[in-house]
Write a structure and sequence with these properties.
Layout lengths: L2 H8 L3 H9 L13 H15 L1
């Protein structure tokens, strides 16, 4: 699943997914290496905070 697909799924910007994966956003969670499953979970949580 691409960053764009994940972003679309969770109604966030693609750059948000990229920032989560790279550790620039939510780095305090220490989830590196970040699997696709973890990235999807984080994107879901983040999307819920925007609502």
């Amino acid at each position: 699943m691409t960053h764009k697909e994940i972003a679309t799924k969770f109604s966030v910007a693609r750059s948000t997914i990229t920032e989560i994966k790279s550790g620039r956003r939510w780095k305090h969670l220490n989830v590196i290496p970040l699997t696709v499953e973890r990235m999807q979970n984080l994107a879901s949580i983040y999307a819920n905070t925007l609502r």
